[in-house]
């Protein structure tokens, strides 16, 4: 009798495990289908901070810029880099303090330029570092200026321990009628050697071959 109970318990555990694994795979498959069915042109919108950065020191090219370049190379997507001179030359600690103040006050810093013909793009990657749990406030300026509802939006971040933070949730709040995927995050200190991870992620979305 005990043997039978153990066998039933083991079978139940296997079924639960398989179901959980299946649900995760279904989510990934659905994301891939959402991207593939959109088709059309793809765009990468991102903010990246060069200069003094945590863990990697003073860098000429920002971590998120490197990641965005990988995505462009593997997908052929166009780029729009959100640029502002507001943070130029700032040391890490003062920049952190300023970023926190901007977030607390809900500031929307200005940025340079604009995306031409944004309506032509069906899929948009949205990338940036994680500052105080979400994207830098200058990215929220972009959100306020551009209607991306109806498009497929793919958040990605570089970080040093925050993962995606609240970035996915904040993109969903900004664009409630868009299809927002789960997102992708990478440690900033890993991006220079992490190209294969990016390719694996994009391959799961049906982009990289």
Radius of gyration based on Cα positions: 20 Å
Shape: globular
Distance between the termini: 53 Å
What average pLDDT do the residues reach?
86
> Hey, roughly how much beta strand do the residues contain?
15-25%
Q: What's the helix count?
A: 6
Query: How many strands?
Result: 8
- DSSP helix fraction: 40-55%
Structure class? alpha/beta
Low-confidence region ranges? 1-21, 30-34
Biggest sheet, in brief?
Answer: 6 strands, parallel
Order of helices and strands: HEEEHEHEHEHEEH
Could you explain how this protein is built, in words?
This protein has about 210 residues and is α/β, with parallel strands linked by helices. The protein contains six helices and eight strands. The chain has helices spanning about 1-40, 65-75, 90-105, 135-145, 165-175, 195-205; strands at about 40-45, 50-55, 55-60, 80, 120-130, 150-160, 180, 185. Strands 1, 4, 5, 6, 7 and 8 form a six-stranded parallel beta sheet that branches. Helix 2 (about 65-75) crosses helix 6 (about 195-205). About 35% of the residues are buried.
Task: Kindly list the characteristics that best describe this protein.
two-stranded antiparallel ribbon, 44% helix, 209 residues, 8 strands, alpha/beta
How are the elements arranged and paired?
Layout: H1 2-38, E1 41-46, E2 51-53, E3 57-59, H2 63-75, E4 78-81, H3 92-105, E5 121-129, H4 137-145, E6 152-159, H5 167-174, E7 179-180, E8 184-187, H6 195-204
Parallel strand pairs: 1-4, 1-5, 5-6, 6-7, 6-8
Antiparallel strand pairs: 2-3
Helix pairs in contact: 2-6
